[in-house]
Structures are given as structure tokens and as C-alpha cells.
Amino acid sequence: MAEPVLVSACLIGSHCRYDSRTNHDHELVRRLTEEGCTIVPYCPEEAGGLGTPRPGASIQSANAAAVVDGKARVVDVHGRDVTAQFLKGAQGALETCRMHGIRRAYLKERSPSCGTCATHVDEVQVPGPGVTTELLLRNGIACTPVEGKKA
Ligand code: SF4
Q1: Which strands sit side by side in the sheet containing 37-42, from one edge to the other?
Q2: Whose CA is nearest to atom 6 of ligand 1?
Q3: Best mutation site among 39, 91, 113 for ligand 1, i.e. most ligand atoms within 8 A of its Cβ?
């Protein structure tokens, strides 16, 4: 039976980036298809209610773990608090994984939502996961970072 895997929607060609661009990674899609995986695309920031395009956002003065624990915020470049939308998107990702029996995710690196090894704090790239990845990792989902292509 095909294994369902969660993939950041921008990596499979959705123009859901904050700037309406995509990170379409044809090689990733080809490899997962060859492996017999069923790709389940998901964009936590759109699912959380943030439109596209939208102002860029980053974790404020902390890390994703603090956001998930309710001890830190995510703010956009205009200073608007978007923590609730980020947490809603992260929770939706986890629910999607549970619904489909997903154990693996391929996520766009450096995003404040989807980053795995790198994310953005105070608009600076730093080591550590984004908010969605933090929640998925806490729940046993194996997360693989993907650079993606900007298009
Ligand atoms: S990195 Fe994640 S939140 Fe950002 S556009 Fe891609 S899927 Fe959406």
C-alpha cells in the first residue's frame, strides 16, 4: 500500500509562499513518486488563516518550542501578532498526519513554520525548527528538511 507523506505545499508547486512564489522541487516529487509514496500537500500558514501574499513573519525572541508552549509569539514584519494562526496551522498539520496515518514529513527549510534545521527568529536565520515542525517532531513524525527551488 502506498505510504502517505506530508509535504510542504510550496515544494510541490503551490504558490503559497508569503510572496506568492513557489519552491517547486521536481526532484523531490519524482523521488517520492518512485518510492510509491502518496504526497499529502499542506501549507500551515494558509491553513492557519493567513492569506497569500502575506507579510513575512518570524518567531519573536525565542524558539518554536516556546511558541508551542504558549510562552512566545510569532509576529509579522509589521509587528502584527500571528501566533494564533501559526499554532492553528501547526495543529492542522498534526491532525492531517493523524487522519492519513502519516509518519514522515518533507518540509521547506528555513520557514518559521516548516523549517527543520533552520528557521527565523527576529527576522534572522537561526538553527532550530519552525512551529509546525516542532509540533510534528513532538508527536513522533520524522521530519526531513528540503531546500526547494525558488520560482
Ligand atoms: S514553507 Fe510551509 S508555510 Fe511556507 S509556504 Fe511553504 S508550506 Fe506554506
Answers
A1: 37-42, 3-8, 104-108, 142-146
A2: 10
A3: 113
What is the rounded CA–CA span in Å between residue 19 and residue 1?
37
**Which residue's CA is the nearest one to ligand 1's atom 5?**
17
Q: Quote the domain boundaries for residue 113.
A: 3-146
Atom of ligand 1 nearest to the CA of 17: 5
pTM of this prediction? 0.97
Tell me if 43 CB under 6 Å of ligand 1. yes
Q: Residue 151 falls within a domain, yes or no? A: no
111 located within any domain: yes
- Report the chain (151 residues): mean pLDDT per 10 consecutive residues: 95 97 96 97 98 97 97 98 98 98 98 97 96 98 92 70
Look at the block and give the residue holding cell 526532484: 27
User: What total number of domains does the chain contain?
Assistant: 1
In a domain, 105, yes or no: yes
Asked, for residue 63, whether it belongs to a domain, the answer is yes
Q: Is any ligand 1 atom within 6 A of the Cβ of residue 111?
A: yes
Say if residues 130 and 117 touch (Cβ distance below 8 Å). Answer: no
